Structure formats: C-alpha cells, structure tokens
Amino acid sequence: MTLWLTVLLPLGGAALLALAGGRLGRRAHGAIGTGSIALSFGAVLSMTAMAGAGPGVHATLGPWLPLPGADLALAVDRSGLPLALMVTGVSALIALYSIGYLARDTGTQRYFAALDLFVSAMLLIVLGANLAVVFAGWELVGLCSYLLIGHWRERPAAAAAAVKAFVVNRVGDAAFLIGLFAILADRHTLAIGSLGPLSVAVSALLLAGAVAKSAQFPLHVWLPDAMEGPTPVSALIHAATMVTAGVVLLLRLGSSLAPEALGAAAALGALTALGAALVALAQTDLKRVLAWSTISQIGLMFVGAGLGAVFAALFHLVAHAFFKATLFLGAGSVLHATGDEQDVRRLGGLAGRLRWTTAAFAAGALGLAALPPASGFFSKEAIATAALDRPWLLAAVLLTGALSALYAARLFTLVFLGPAGSEASAAAHESPLVMLVPLGALGLGALGFGALVAGGAVALGVPEPASAPPALALGGGLLAAAGVALGWWRSRSGGHGLLPPALGHAALAGFGLDALLAGGGARSVAAIASALEHGAEATLQWSLDAAGRLVTRAGAQVQRAESGFVRSYEAFLLAGAALLLALWSLGGTGPR
C-alpha cells in the first residue's frame, strides 16, 4: 500500500485543493500542495530498503480495464527508485519555492491543485506496471502542462503557448495509442514485463510518443513557447516531470524496443542536441536559453537510451533534474528581483545584489557546462563513454558539451557579472528565504550528486559500466573549460552574440522550423478540413438531389396509372382480389 501512497498523496492534495481550496487562503494552498508531495517523497524513501533488497515491490489496487494486463497496478525496482525520488524530491522543492514566487498571485488554488496532479501523473509513468496505467499518466501530464503553462490565461501569449503544447503533444499521443492497440492485438497483454521484443513499426510508434513528450526534433517547437507560464512551472516541466517522460518511457521499454528504433532514437537525439545547443547560443531571453538547453540535454539522454546505456541515460536524467531546476529557479529569483526582466542584455551586475541567487545559479551553470566536479561532468562522460564505438555520436556528444559550456558561461556572465543594463537590474533585491532554501538545496545537488554516484556513495539501481578512459575524461573537461573561457571572454568584451551574424539570425528564429510547421502544417490542416467540409457538403447535396429525383420519377409512374376513370379503379380492385385468391389457393390456406 505504501507504493500506492506515493501516487495517492499528491492526488489527494490535488482533490482537496480543487474541492475545498476556495475556502482556504494562499498559505494553506501552498502548505497542502507542498506537504502532499513531501509526504509522497517520504513514502518513496521508506520503500528504499524493500525495493533495494529484492526484485522490487508490486502493488495492485484492483481491476481497471477489461483487458489483459490492464489492472490498476504499480511496480518499482532498484532502477525505478531514483526516478521516483527525483520526481517527488525535486517537485517538493519547486512547490516550496512557488509559495514565495506566487505570494501575490490570485490563482494559487488551481496552481497547486494542477501541480499536485502533475506530480501524481508523472509517478504513474514512472511506476505504472502496465502500459494502460502509463498511458493514463501520459495523458494527465499533458493536461496538467496545459493548465500550468496557461496559468496566467489572461495573457494571450500564455494561452496560445498552452494550446500549442497541448496540440503538438497530441501527435505523439496518437502514435503512442495506436502502438498500444497494436501491442494488445499482437501480444494480448499490456503488462510491461510480458511484452517481449516488439516489431519495428510498433517501436517506431512508441518512439514518436516519446519524441513529442520530450520535445525532440521535429516536435520540439512547443517547449520554448511554454516559458510563458510561471517560472516554477518551467522548472517542474523541464526538470522533474513532462519533458523527462519520453526518456523514462525509452528506459522502461528499452529491452523490448526494436534495435532500429533505438538507433533512430540515438541519431535523433544527437541531431537535436547539436541543433538546440546552437539555437541556445543565439537567444537573448533568459528563460528561452534554458528552454533550448533542455531540448539539447534531453537529446543527450536519447543518445544514451538509444545506445542501450541505461546507466548513462538515467544518470544524466537525474543530474539534469538538479542543475536544470537550479537554473530555472535561479532565473525565477532574477525575475522576482528585477520586475520580470528576461532580456539578458538588460540584466547584469546582479552578483553583488543577489549573492545567494548568484551562488546557486553558478552551481547550476557548472552542471550545465559539465565542468568538474559538477554533476553534469560525470553524467555527460558516461554518455560519451557509451558512444565510444560510434564515432559520429561521440563527436556530437563532445561538441554539444562544448557548446553547452559556451552558452552557460555567456548566460552567467551577462546576467550576473556584466554591468547593469537597466534600472531594474541596478535596483534588484534578493528573494525571500522560502525561495532561497529550495534553490540552495538544488544547487548543492547540482554540485555534489555526480561525485556521489561516481564515488559509489549513491547507487542508481542499474549496473555501472566501466569508467571513462582518462583521455576521454580529460578531453571532455578541457572542451568544457575552453567553452567556459570563450563564453566569458566574449561576453565580457561586449559581444552578446557568439555566432556569425547570418547563422545567429537563423538560430535566433530556431532555424525557421517553428514557422515552417506553423505555416505549412496549419495550411495543410486547413486544406484537408476545407476539402472534407466541401466534400461532405457536396455529398449531402447530391444525396438530397438524388432522393428528390427518385421521388419525382416514382410519382410520374404512379401518375400514369391515375387516369381518373372509376372503371379503371374497379378493374385494379378485381385484379388485386383475384391475385390474393390465387395466392391463398396455392398456399393451401384459403379463407375459412
């Protein structure tokens, strides 16, 4: 029952806030929202000994769908525990931070209700024992992302971003659902442990679902716009919940997916990682830099998962949760201090005014740049080690690491070390303690988690491969250091752009892919809808005309028989009576 409590506690918090939150104040909303997730974290922590000592923990609440392997069942083993701890622990800190960030917001009831539901849904994806439960969580995180991204729904940009995220994810969700039907038809079960090897087509459908949810090329276009939501929502989506869901799916189904699909995942991840890193170099919006960096880092996780390197992908997923949550909450502290100023060219000089925020953001930036001893260094080296026998994938991982260090250093320098770029930046003030405590805790994780795993003090529940060759570790560290040095020097010397003008302009617009999909995709859908509309209208009109012509012709034939002479009618009556008598006689059932 403890296993189900991990899901039911935040779900209960969401229900309580939704039903009774209207009679409570903002502090109560925050306390219930944060407390229910913290209790869920405690429940997961209490299962560490049980799940670590044996094959795992399985709990069935009862039957659900009338399908084989579709009960309400959860399961956790040693590899699932780090994910569940990451989701609940990081989410609890983000919820605590939200109390201070949204202290004056009028919609805290629906915010914390949706946040708790979000965490509960993500836990279904992590812990679901069958694909029916996983898909329920999959759809719920899509709903919650819509509600949270559009939290400030009075802003047209936020409302549009919420709709965009919801619609783009429907593409992947439809592919995932078709894949489930195909699995059910072929394997007659949805239990994850009983799937066996899946076909290339089914594996491709499941991969499409993961690509959309984790914002990988070409379905990544929704994530940068999702920055219109509150900054803690961005931290939650990027670090602990929705964007990581696709990686979790690949890790949980990796042994069943076709090798061709896994190879495609690795190639797509490498392409996305490189492309998104280039785009991040050109961005001038603080949160959009972090959004594109998430797309890039998730691409590295896809490389690890596609190569079958479960340890490397899982390691980077958890390490990324620490440093990306730190960066987003640090960005939120900057926005809180400067009146929501997001243009990095108008920030600067904050290191002396926001000392705690600066220290935490520096820890997150070190993790993103993969400089030792930050967590990102060890997790990225694990992915690079897994790609040693794939030269082009290895090159993509190393180059992505160098670019990440470059834009991380640029971002930190422009925001904290450069001269103040506006009055808001010059008058900035430090955030309250309720925001700084979770920010500091995540910053410590961004710095120390990787070393704890590498040193064996923390286990991820999966076999750890051989450590990176010294030359690879040294090369990766030097590339990261060179990227940091170049980014710092270029930004300090007054150059905001790190790319040639033409390339920088294209990267700033995301290489035009968003406009292409929005234009071409919208026009295609509109053309299809118009064709269907006009086709349906034409078909209906033809049917009505045909029915009218049929009635007209039938009436003309009947009209010929209607001569108006009484003798004709009498003749018809006599003929009909004679016909009936003949039929009765032939059937032996004459009148009695």
Produce the secondary structure layout.
Blueprint: H1 2-20, H2 26-46, H3 48-53, E1 57-62, E2 72-76, H4 80-101, H5 108-127, H6 131-149, H7 156-187, H8 200-213, H9 222-225, H10 231-240, H11 242-253, H12 259-282, H13 286-306, H14 310-338, H15 355-369, H16 375-386, H17 391-417, H18 423-426, H19 433-454, H20 470-492, H21 501-508, H22 513-561, H23 566-587
Antiparallel strand pairs: 1-2
Helix pairs in contact: 1-2, 1-5, 2-4, 2-5, 4-5, 4-10, 4-14, 4-19, 5-6, 5-11, 6-7, 7-8, 8-11, 8-12, 10-14, 11-13, 11-14, 12-13, 12-17, 12-21, 13-14, 13-16, 13-17, 14-15, 14-16, 14-19, 15-17, 15-19, 16-17, 16-19, 16-20, 17-20
Approximate strand percentage: under 5%
Structural class: mainly alpha
Distance between the termini: 79 Å
Question: Radius of gyration over alpha carbons?
Answer: 31 Å
Total beta strands: 2
Shape: elongated
In sequence order, what are the helices and strands, one letter per element? Answer: HHHEEHHHHHHHHHHHHHHHHHHHH
Overall pLDDT: 89
- Put simply, the count of helices is 23
Q: Report helical residue fraction.
A: over 70%
The strand order across the widest sheet is 1-2
pLDDT below 50 for ≥5 consecutive residues: which ranges? none
How would a textbook summarize the main sheet? 2 strands, antiparallel
Main features:
mainly alpha; 23 helices; 2 strands
In short:
The protein is built from 23 helices and 2 strands. The chain is an all-alpha fold and 592 residues long. Strands 1-2 form a two-stranded antiparallel sheet.
